[in-house]
Structures are given as C-alpha cells and as structure tokens.
Amino acid sequence: MCNSKMRGLAQIDGRPVLQPASNRVVIEPNKPMKNIVPSPITLPKPTLTTNDAKLSPLPKLKREKAVLKRGIDPNGLNSSGEKPPTPRSAASKPPVVAIKKSKKVAPVGQPGLEPVVVAAGTIAAAQRKQASLMQQQRKMRIAHYGRTAEKLQGKEALVDSANVVEANQDEKRCSFITSNSDPLYLAYHDEEWGAPVHDDRALFELLVLSGFQVGMDWTTILKRRHEFRAAFSGFAAEEVCNFTEKQITTISLEYGIDIGRVRGVADNANRVLEVGKEFGSLSNYLWGFVNHKPLVPGYRSCRKIPVKTSKSDSISRDLIRRGFRFVGPTVVLSFMQAAGLTNDHLLSCPRHAAVSLLSRPAAELTSSKYHDCTA
C-alpha cells in the first residue's frame, strides 16, 4: 500500500512531490529521452460587448468608435438624425463649370450660354494673375503721377490742351477760387477785391458789408448787394444818419435784415461824418493807418493768411473808441482786403501785380467832404 502511494510521487530536490498522471514522465533506463513537445493549448476567443468596448477601447477600434458616435448601427440602421458620412474621393469630385457669356443675345430656342469645363484651380490662378496685374498698373500710375503726356505700357497718353490751359488759369488764381466758385464771386475777385478804394461812399459800403459777412459768405453778400444799396440809400452817410425808428423797422421787415444791424449802420453813418469833419474824409482817416500805401505781405498760400493782424487789431480798437459798431479785428481785416489797404492776393495770382500797379497815395486824389447832417 505504501508502494502504490509512492508511485504517483516525484522527487524534486530530494523531496517527494505529488503530480497528476498527465505530467508524469516514465523514464525507462534502456530507452533514450526524446524531445516531447506539448500540444498547443487553444483558448476560446473572448467576445467583447458594447459596455466592454467602452470601458477598454483598443487602438484598432478607434474608427469604429467614431462611427458608433455618429449613430451608425452595425445592422445598417441610423439611430441619430445626422447623415452618414460619405467617403471623399478625387475621382467623384464634379468638375468646375464656368459659364461663358456670349457677346450677342441668342434668339429664342437657341442656347445663349456655352458651358466650358475648366480644370480645378484655374479660376484661382486667374484671379491671382489679375490681382498681380492690377498691382503693377497701380505702381505705374503712382510712378507717373502728375505727368500730362507719357508713354505708359506702349500707349501715349493724350491730354486736351484746352483743359490744361483752363486748369493752369485756375491754379494761378488765389487758391480759394475753385472751379465750383460762383461766377459773381469770380468776377469780384478778378475786378474788385484788393483794388485800392479811396471813395468815402464805397469805403462806407465795404465797411458795412464786411460787418454783414459775419454768419454769411461773400457770395451771398454779393448777390444781395443791390438790396443793401436800396435799403441804405446807396450808402450815403448824410441820408443814413437821418433814419428814424420807423424807417429802421421798415427796412428790417422789408429786406430781412436784423433790426440791430440796421441801427448799427445808422450809428456808423454818424461816426463817418464825425471822422470826415476831423480828418477831412473817411479815406484820409483809414489810409493813414497804413501810411497811405497798401500793405504787401506776399503770401504764397492761402493757409498763411491770418484771420486778423496786429494792424487790423489797432484799427479796430480806434474805431470802437470812436463809437463804431460791428468792427472787430476779423471784420476790419476783411474790410482792409476788400478796400485794398492790404494786397492779400497770392504771389502766384495775376491780380497781385495788377493791384500793385493800381496802388498810389491817397493824398493825390481829391477826397469828398462830408458835412454835418444836422446842419
């Protein structure tokens, strides 16, 4: 009995070890040992459920996982509202079709448009080429800016000589005269503005109009000059100084002039007569501030012409001291420019030289004498 138990035992390192019958190897002393290769053990292939796939995703199943996220059922059913992805291939891309417009309108029943198949990428290349060409043309225009006649890209640029002459004339005038200037204002610049004035009535008119210019422009003043002359009796100081309150109100209502300005003109007429009695004439009084000779600043740009000067400031202070109204420094400078006490035409303007020739001392002219209107 003891021997039967010992038959299933094997000794490892001198110790008896019980082994199963499948692992026992019987070694016979007369037979050599052979290489015994055990048969491979085949295990059943594990099956993964949906929950297992979510818990332990495999690298090879990443694409199937993305497909499952879109709602594609393995059985071919779409469980979500999204459209199934379609494979993209270069062979299935439709060709780009450009529509070529015909110059002539096709009659009814005949095709007027010819479809032309264009290879992909041709339109973008054409757009790039067009943009490059436009950039080159722009650089060419900048390089030849200001040239009237030049051969550009094999073509000679023709310029109308009449337009060039007219443009040059506009450039020679003072820069505040533009092509959009009113013809009446243009004639005033070419004939009156800056010309020396020594007549007392004309000086009184210009002084009044310069005061009215505040809030308006010279073009509006010139268009209404005949109305102002009719309202103030041709700017005769002897008559204006006798205006009654009723006449002042009537002039204000009839000609649309502020009643305060009408009163100011009547007060200035009295001051003109007082100056005439003291200095002999209004002309002698005003031209005495510039030593009976026009000032010539010699401006090259209208932006250099100030709105008031030290001379206009001194004249304004003296006029205000004598009781004149609406004679601030800016108004006085505008009056000096209009009456020719200062030649503010630009040096490039042809009227600058013409006005200089017209200038002569006021003492050589016979001045008008004013008498007291109360006499």
UniProtKB/TrEMBL annotation:
<dbReference type="GO" id="GO:0046872">
    <property type="term" value="F:metal ion binding"/>
</dbReference>
<dbReference type="GO" id="GO:0008725">
    <property type="term" value="F:DNA-3-methyladenine glycosylase activity"/>
</dbReference>
<feature type="binding site">
    <location>
        <position position="174"/>
    </location>
    <ligand>
        <name>Zn(2+)</name>
    </ligand>
</feature>
<feature type="binding site">
    <location>
        <position position="349"/>
    </location>
    <ligand>
        <name>Zn(2+)</name>
    </ligand>
</feature>
<feature type="region of interest" description="Disordered">
    <location>
        <begin position="37"/>
        <end position="95"/>
    </location>
</feature>
<feature type="binding site">
    <location>
        <position position="189"/>
    </location>
    <ligand>
        <name>Zn(2+)</name>
    </ligand>
</feature>
<dbReference type="InterPro" id="IPR005019">
    <property type="entry name" value="Adenine_glyco"/>
</dbReference>
<dbReference type="Pfam" id="PF03352">
    <property type="entry name" value="Adenine_glyco"/>
</dbReference>
<dbReference type="GO" id="GO:0006284">
    <property type="term" value="P:base-excision repair"/>
</dbReference>
<dbReference type="InterPro" id="IPR011257">
    <property type="entry name" value="DNA_glycosylase"/>
</dbReference>
<keyword id="KW-0862">Zinc</keyword>
<keyword id="KW-0479">Metal-binding</keyword>
<protein>
    <recommendedName>
        <fullName>DNA-3-methyladenine glycosylase I</fullName>
    </recommendedName>
</protein>
<feature type="binding site">
    <location>
        <position position="345"/>
    </location>
    <ligand>
        <name>Zn(2+)</name>
    </ligand>
</feature>
